[in-house]
Amino acid sequence: MIAVLEKAEHTLELLVKNVGLAMYVDKTHLIPQPFKGTGVIKLIILGQDPTVKDASNREKIKTVLNLDTNGSARAYLSGICQQIGIDLLRNGYATNLFKNFFTSPPTEIKDINIFKEFLGAWLPLLKEELAPFENVPMITLGEPVLKHLLAKETPHPLREHWGYMPEWKYGNLGLFKFVRPDENILGRQLFPFPHQPSLRREFYKKRLNDYISFMKKNAFPG
């Protein structure tokens, strides 16, 4: 992880020198370190970026998704892991696609496509970072990350992989899907999950346990 952080800091230095992108980079905070379980890594968790709206709270984020603390993100991901039969603290590896803090949450930056503009800087490092975990399945958190990993654009990829249909409330549901290696730029088996706040939406709340079971069947058989 030390090598990953060193290369991430180097990438950050290059972004700060980029005339077109530097204004969107929060230069005052160090890049959070990836989270790595103590045992064999059996699941990769890919987050978006570490930016929180309240800049005064960014200093508290030392590890990706705050998984070094016993907070809500860890509880959510631990629950997923428990249902598929692994232990997050032993078998999980979590990192962000975009490793730097932005000046504002990316959804609030409207003058450029922030993810598209920063993807070229961070994608090569992510591929290098994940290379030691060959064939380890991955979950992606949130739709923005998923959209930028897909080889083919689609309007609402997260809910589409969860079997969303307009009349889902009446039992009209599609099949669950995962993203095949040939369908994404990482060449991995991806299982899209919503961010924890999105579980307030009835559709995701209703489908969560069934999608975890689908993931277990396809990525952790036996």
Keywords:
alpha/beta; Uracil-DNA Glycosylase, subunit E; five-stranded mixed beta sheet; 7 helices; 5 strands; 35% helix; globular
Walk me through this protein's architecture.
The protein has 222 residues and is an alpha/beta fold. It has one domain: Uracil-DNA glycosylase-like domain (Uracil-DNA Glycosylase, subunit E). 35% of the residues lie in helices and 9% in strands. The protein is built from 7 helices and 5 strands, in the order αββααβαβααβα. Strands 1-3-2-4-5 form a 5-stranded mixed sheet. The chain is globular and about 50 Å long. The two termini are 31 Å apart. The mean pLDDT is 94.
| Name of the top-level CATH class | Alpha Beta
**Low-pLDDT sequence parts:** none
Give the N-to-C terminal Cα separation: 31 Å
Named CATH topology: Uracil-DNA Glycosylase, subunit E
Helical stretch tally: 7
Number of domains: 1
What is the number of strand segments? 5
Strand content: 5-15%
Q: Can you say what the CATH homologous superfamily is?
A: Uracil-DNA glycosylase-like domain
Topology, pairings included?
Blueprint: H1 2-16, E1 35-36, E2 43-47, H2 72-84, H3 88-91, E3 92-96, H4 114-130, E4 138-141, H5 143-147, H6 157-161, E5 190-193, H7 202-219
Parallel strand pairs: 2-3, 2-4, 4-5
Antiparallel strand pairs: 1-3
What's a concise summary of this model?
The chain is built from seven helices and five strands.
